[in-house]
Every structure is written in structure tokens, then in C-alpha cells.
Design a protein that fits this description.
By secondary structure, the chain is mainly beta. It has a single domain, classed as Alpha-Beta Complex (paralog of FGE (formylglycine-generating enzyme)). 5% of the residues lie in helices and 20% in strands. The longest helix is centred in the N-terminal third of the chain and has 8 residues.
């Protein structure tokens, strides 16, 4: 039997679970509630706030900050991550979904230029589809799914 690995953009749910500490007990960040520790886990505050990327105009090389409880690095800040979900009102419940289609895709995780609050695990914003708008604060992370 062959193992097929499908590579695709992460969904909002996968992004949130990899950023937050526990599925049932939500914290603003993977490392807990203390926003003052954000600089140990991600790059933020270049243009807004008082972050560790003050005045810088570029994303940083991955892996220079502490890992979250799953060993993943750069899940807060650095670049906003494109998700495969469409942006819009969420359905609610434990695994909420957005609309079936929209003009915008979901971005998660915050970027190096923004406020600490933008780097919270639950923060999501909408932006035009990849390729239709460019920003040095946008990026993506693939998820590998075994099928």
C-alpha cells in the first residue's frame, strides 16, 4: 500500500491548534497568557507597538525563537500566514468554518510589523487571495496530510 502525502495550505483550525496550547483551554499565545514573553517566541512591533523588530522592514529567518509546546517555531509574528479558508463570519462551535467562498482568504499569526495583539492565536484577518496583493509581512506554511 502506498502512502500519499498531500501538501496544502493550512486551514484556520490547524493554524489555531498549532498556535494555541490546548484545544480545550485557550490561551492568547502558545506559551500562555503573558504577552511580555512574546519576543521570546516571535518577531513583532516593527511599525506598531514596542516589539523586538522595532524599525526593521523584513521577515526573519525561521527558527531563531523558542518553539511552542509541539516543537514548532515562528507560529506567532514574523509573517501573517495565508490559510486555505475563506474569510467571513464563523459558524461557531468547536470547529467553526467560514463561508464556502469569499473575496478574501484568512490570514493568521500576526507579522513582524504589527502589535502584540495581532500575534494572538485567535486573531484572524481577511486579505485578498495570494497573488492579488503583495506584502513583505505575508507568508505561508504548508501542512502535510497523510492519506
Amino acid at each position: 500500500m502506498a502512502i500519499v502525502i498531500v501538501i496544502k495550505l493550512k486551514t484556520t483550525k490547524i493554524t489555531h491548534l498549532t498556535q494555541s496550547r490546548n484545544r480545550r483551554i485557550l490561551h492568547p499565545f502558545s506559551f500562555g497568557d503573558d504577552e511580555s514573553k512574546l519576543s521570546e517566541y516571535g518577531w513583532w512591533g516593527s511599525d506598531y507597538g514596542n516589539g523586538n523588530a522595532k524599525g526593521e522592514k523584513y521577515a526573519h529567518r525561521v527558527g531563531q525563537k523558542n518553539a511552542n509546546p509541539w516543537g514548532l517555531k515562528d507560529m506567532h509574528g514574523n509573517v501573517w500566514e495565508w490559510c486555505s479558508d475563506w474569510y467571513g463570519d464563523l459558524s461557531g462551535g468547536e470547529d467553526p468554518t467560514g463561508p464556502a467562498a469569499s473575496r478574501n482568504r484568512v490570514l493568521r499569526g500576526g507579522g513582524f510589523s504589527g502589535f502584540a495583539a495581532d500575534c494572538r492565536s485567535a486573531r484572524r484577518v481577511g486579505s485578498r487571495q495570494p497573488g492579488s496583493s503583495r506584502s513583505q509581512t505575508y507568508g505561508f506554511r504548508f501542512a502535510a496530510v497523510l492519506e
